[in-house]
Design brief:
The protein has a domain at 3-13 and 70-186: Transposase IS200-like (Alpha-Beta Plaits, 2-Layer Sandwich). Helix content is 31%, strand content 24%. It has four helices and eight strands; from the N terminus they run E-E-E-H-H-E-E-H-E-H-E-E. It has a six-stranded antiparallel sheet with strand order 6-1-5-4-7-8, sandwiched between helices. A two-stranded antiparallel ribbon has the order 2-3. Strand 4 (94-100) and strand 5 (104-111) form a beta hairpin. Helix 2 (74-91) packs across helix 3 (117-136). The longest helix is centred in the middle third of the chain and has 20 residues, at 117-136. The two termini are 26 Å apart. 32% of the residues are buried.
């Protein structure tokens, strides 16, 4: 594989822009050293910080919601996992770790070449959306996921190993975890 990525995405409405826990998104930044007063920046990329608590942005985001927040159950998580694995197989990507929680997922994936990370994450989400909607019906929001997600390039082997460990062993209450070496696990991480 030429590149490895750590991908994270939340389910629709569960972690809005402005959230006090911090968030990944596009926000306006004021830069005093520039003549321009503000510019829009995105913090979803490698080595960019997370954004901080912005209560007014969170309230504005809530007012725009088209449906209730999506909370995955175990059966839905299993469907998502199967679809992630199928998508990677079709795309010839190497999955190293997946963890799916009720409100977000993490994927550690290797790819050939240098495809745009938004395309990689988008493929996982779009195929999972089709499968979920076919099996469980489309949600009122017409989407299962938040619009964007975190796409962080993994720079070296140490970082790669750390992301795999984080994905498999450091997630609170995962519905499903998977890696090629440990297989499928439900409800608890696959402790060695």
């Amino acid at each position: 594989m030429d590149r490895y990525w750590f991908l994270t995405n939340t389910t629709y409405g569960t972690w809005l822009p402005g959230d006090q826990r911090g968030f990944v998104g596009r926000v306006w930044e004021h830069r005093e050293e520039d003549d321009e007063e503000e510019r829009r920046i995105e913090h979803a990329l490698h080595e960019t910080p997370y954004d901080a608590n912005i209560p007014k942005l969170e309230m504005a985001s809530q007012s725009l919601m088209k449906g209730s927040p999506i909370l995955l159950n175990k059966e839905q998580a299993e469907v998502v996992l199967d679809q992630f694995r199928e998508t990677a197989l079709i795309r010839h990507w190497e999955l190293l770790a997946i963890s799916i929680m009720y409100n977000h997922f993490h994927i550690v994936v290797g790819v050939m070449g240098d495809p745009k990370p938004g395309k990689i994450l988008g493929d996982f989400k779009s195929y999972a959306t089709r499968t979920l909607s076919k099996k469980f019906g489309a949600p009122a929001s017409e989407t299962w996921w938040t619009e964007r997600g975190s796409k962080r390039k993994i720079k070296d082997e140490v970082s790669l190993n750390n992301r795999v460990v984080y994905t498999l062993y450091k997630q609170p209450n995962p519905l499903v975890t998977w890696s090629p070496g440990t297989g499928l696990h439900f409800g608890v991480p696959p402790y060695r």
